[in-house]
Structures are given as C-alpha cells and as structure tokens.
UniProtKB/TrEMBL annotation:
This is ABC-type glycerol-3-phosphate transport system permease component. Residues 1-27 are annotated as: Disordered. GO terms for biological process: transmembrane transport. InterPro entries: MetI-like, MetI-like_sf. GO terms for cellular component: plasma membrane. It comes from Naumannella cuiyingiana. Belongs to the binding-protein-dependent transport system permease family.
Length: 308
C-alpha cells in the first residue's frame, strides 16, 4: 500500500505589511444631542454676556467724554471729544495712583501670606494620617459658613487693642486669614489626587518630611497653587467692607474705598467722567489677570473632583 505525499505550495512571495487600524472618531451621534431646552440656556448665557460687555463698553465711552457732554448728551450717545485727559486727572488729581499703590501692596502681600500658610496647612491634612484630621479639616471648612457681618466687630476691637487699626498691616492680616478656609479646602482636594508612592519612594531614598514636601510635592502643586493665588488676589483686590471699616485715613485706603470716595465727590461736584476713568483703571488689571490665567483656575478647582 503506497502513500502519496502531497506537497503544499509555500508562499514565497513578498509579505504584505500589517494593516493598521485607526481609532474610530466619535461620531456626532456619540456626543450630547441638542435638546430644545438647551436653546433657553444658550440665550440666557448670551444675554448675560452681552449685558456685561455692553456695560463695560458704556463705561469706556463715558470715561472719554467731558462733564458737559456727559450731562447734556443722551446717556448712550457716542463720545465726540475723546478726552484721554480724564485718565491722567483721575490718576493724579483724583488720588487713584495712591489708592492703586495701596491696593497692590495689600493684595499682593495678603495673597502671598494666605497661599503660603494654606499650602502648609493643607499638606498634613491631605497626606498625613493622624487622629482628628477630619475634625481639623471640618473646622477650617466651617470658616466658609461664617458671615462677614459677624466678624467685623471682633476684628475691629482686636486690631484696636493691638494697635493695628487703620494700618495696612492690619488689613493684610485680615485678608490673609479671610481666604484661608477656601484655600485649604481646595488644596486638600488637589493634594489627594497625587499618588502616595511619591512619599514612599522619597522615604526609601532617605528624604525627610520637609525635603519630601519642598522637593517633590510642592513642584507638583502648580495648578492648585495658581488657582487659589488668582482667586485670593481678586478677592483681596475687590474687597470693600473690611477696608471701609478698618481704614480711616486717606493715605491707607485701597482702590474700592477710594472709588467710593470719588463717587461721593462726584455727587456734589458733578465730576462724573473722572469717576468712570478711575473705574476703568481699577477694572482693567483684574480683567487682564483673569483672562490670561483663567485656564489655571479651572485646572486647579476641578483637579480635586477627580479623586479624593
């Protein structure tokens, strides 16, 4: 009985390259579909944005008029004089230069102090386990619920007793502590997103707690630190009530209180264009800072919502 061997042909030709499959892009149907009620929210947000831009443009237009033109012309008429001299008058004669310098000194110093102590306080609450850590964090968060009208009388009496009433140092200390609860709350949530293996690897290499914090953890806190820095600076820059109660002399007043004084003077002297020019000088730095760093604010505030 014979057996036949069947030779199978071998594929000696060139091999075809493997086919690369591309990832399918999400189709339009995979995204959130447009609902009819979405149009209401779009119109509402558009109306809010338009009103804000229109008010900003109106203030710019009025700040370039003369007092006679502002009083005699219709409120929404375009300026014909283009008086840029109003800004120089507001800066020099109106005292905005002094108020601006005081606001920069108070806002920047209070922001640096508040952010520094917030980061130091948030690190053990977020990364070190000790009895009562949750209670300590809750006490800090309770500070967000205390209304300002409850605190200004004790603050006034305390600053008066220690000799810091009507001083920029007293206002700086108030602003620095005023932002502590929110800053600690944000930084605790942000630090909890960092992996614990960072401290473990540093401990294996022989690094102590201080070296681990300043050399490893602190460089990774950029988005969180940036967000609380910007928000604290904007709060300190725009704060009015504490500056009105705790500051008496004109030489120590900040911009919000100085603008209030200019508005009182404009009521009796009808020098409205100088007031609107001072408003623009006050608002423009805040708008520039927020426009340039708004992405940092979103990154820092949303990081703690992912984990922790």
């Amino acid at each position: 009985m014979s057996t036949e061997t069947i030779a199978r042909p071998t594929d000696s030709g060139p091999k075809r390259p493997p086919i690369r499959r591309r990832h399918r892009r999400p189709a339009v149907s995979d995204r959130a579909r447009f609902r009819p009620f979405h149009l209401f929210f779009y119109l509402l947000m558009g109306a809010g944005a338009f009103s804000a831009v229109a008010a900003f443009a109106w203030v710019i237009n009025v700040s370039l008029k003369t007092n006679v033109e502002f009083i005699t012309s219709p409120p929404f008429s375009l300026t014909r004089s283009w008086e840029f001299e109003n800004y120089r008058q507001a800066w020099n004669a109106g005292g905005v230069a002094m108020f601006f310098g005081n606001s920069v000194l108070v806002a920047v110093t209070a922001t640096v102090l508040g952010v520094f102590f917030s980061v130091l306080a948030a690190y053990p609450l977020a990364r070190v386990r000790f009895p009562g850590s949750g209670i300590v964090l809750s006490v800090f968060i309770l500070g967000l619920m205390v209304p300002w009208m409850v605190t200004f009388i004790p603050l006034y009496l305390t600053l008066r007793d220690i000799g810091l009433l009507d001083t920029q140092l007293g206002l700086i200390l108030v602003y620095a502590t005023y932002n502590l609860p929110f800053n600690i709350f944000v930084m605790v949530g942000f630090m909890r997103t960092l992996p614990v293996q960072l401290e473990e690897a540093a401990a294996i290499d022989g690094a102590g707690p201080a070296r681990t914090f300043f050399g490893i953890i602190l460089p990774l806190l950029g988005p969180g630190v940036a967000s609380i820095t910007i928000i604290s600076f904007l709060n300190n820059w725009n704060e009015f009530f504490y500056a009105l109660v705790l500051i008496r002399t004109k030489e120590n007043m900040t911009l919000p209180v100085g603008l209030w004084q200019l508005s009182q003077a404009a009521t009796y002297s009808s020098n409205w264009v100088t007031l609107f020019a001072a408003i623009m000088i006050t608002v423009v730095p805040v708008l520039v800072v927020f426009a340039l760093l708004q992405r940092r604010i979103a990154e820092g505030l949303t990081a703690g919502a992912i984990k922790g």
